[in-house]
C-alpha cells in the first residue's frame, strides 16, 4: 500500500510540474477518470511531456481545460496534487486577475459552455450512480419484473423515494456544483435552488394559479428535476453577489450581501431565468425525443452513429452535451430510447476492443495491460484506459470499436429497446438501464451489449494492432 501511495504521489508531482507548476494552476478538479486543469498560461504545459509520464494515459483539451487522463486512481492523484499545491478540494483556486482576456469568438463561447457544463454536471456522477442503482433495484425486484417487492411494501416505498430524490432535488445539487464552478457562495446558491422547488411554488405551478413577484407577473413552473434553470440562475447570481461584495461597506457585507443577492435573484430567477431555462431544456429534450421517435431507417442509422462515434465525443469532451440531454430526458420523461442506446453500446464496445487486442498482441507486457483494460471496463466501469491505451496507441482497433458500437446500437434500435434509468457507468451495470420496462426489453438490451463486445473483439482481432509500423 505504501509503495502504491508513493507511486501515486510521484505521479502527482510530475503532473503538477508538467502543467507549469502550482503557480500556473487557476483551477483544478476531476471527474471519474480525468484531472481537469484551468491553467493561467497555456503555453507552459507540453502535451508530449505529459503523455510520457508513467501513469498518464492521455491528454485532451476541451472547454478551455487541460484534461489529463489517469483512470480509476484519479481521485487519489487529485488529492496528492491538492496537497502538493496547497489547493482546496472543495473550492476553486483564485484566478489570476491579471490574466489577459481572450477574444470572444463562437469557438470560445462554445468552449465556455462546455466548460460550465463539465464543472456543474461532472461532480454529480457519483450521486446519479447511487440514485440510479436504487431505481434499478426497484425496477428489477418490483411488480414489473420479478415481483419480489410489492408496491405496498415499506422497502419498495423506501427504495423508490431514495432513487427519485437523486433527480427531484437537482436544483439544489446543481446549485452546489455550480457555485463552485462560478465562484460564488455555496449556501446562498443552494438557498436559491431550494426556493425553486419549494412546495408552495410547486403547488402554485401545478394548480395553474396566477402569481406575481414584487408585483411582476410570473409564470410559476415546476423546477424539480431540471438542469438548465439553476445553472443559469447561479451563473447570474455570481455577478450579482460580486457586485454587492465589491460595493457594500465591509461592516455590512456579512448581513446584506447574501440578503440583497437573494432579493435581486428572486425576480430574475422566477420571472426570467427559470422559465427561459425550462424552455431551453424542453426544447433540447423534445428535439432529442423527436429523433428517438423518427422510427424506421432514420432512427436506426442515428442510434448506430451514436454508438460508432460516442467514444470520439468522449475524447473531445463533446459527450457532455449529450449527457446533459440524457439528464434532462430521464428527469422529465423517465426514459430514453435514443442517446443511451448508443452510449451503452459504445461503452461495451471498448471492452470488446480490448479483448480483441489482448488476444492479438504478442508482447507479454502489452498483452497484460490490454487484459487489465478489459477488467477496468467490464468491472470498474472506466473505459478511458482502454480507449487511450489500445485505440489511440495502436490506431487500428478504432475500427473494431466503431463496428461494435454501431452493431450493438443498431440491434437495440431494431428491437425497440428503451432505457429507464440513467446509469452513468460504463461497466456491465450499464445494461441495468434497460430494466424497468418489460423483461423482453431488458433481454434485448443485454443482447445489444453482448453484440457490441463480440463484434468489437472480432473486428479488432482481425484488423490487428500497429506497433512501430508493424502489425502484431
Through-space gap between termini: 35 Å
Derived from helix and strand composition plus strand pairing, the structural class reads alpha+beta
Poorly predicted runs are 90-100
Most strands sheet: 4 strands, antiparallel
- Order of secondary-structure elements: HEEHEEHHHHHHHEEHHHHHHHHHEE
DSSP helix count? 18
Number of strands: 8
Q: So what's the overall shape? A: globular
Proportion of residues in helical segments: 55-70%
Strand content: 5-15%
Spatial order of strands in the largest sheet: 1-2-4-3
The radius of gyration computed from the alpha-carbon positions, rounded to a whole number of angstroms, is: 24 Å
Average pLDDT across residues?
84
General description of the model:
The protein is α+β, with helices and mostly antiparallel strands. Helix content is 64%, strand content 7%. The protein has a four-stranded antiparallel sheet. The longest helix has 43 residues, at 250-292. Residues 90-100 have low confidence and may be disordered.
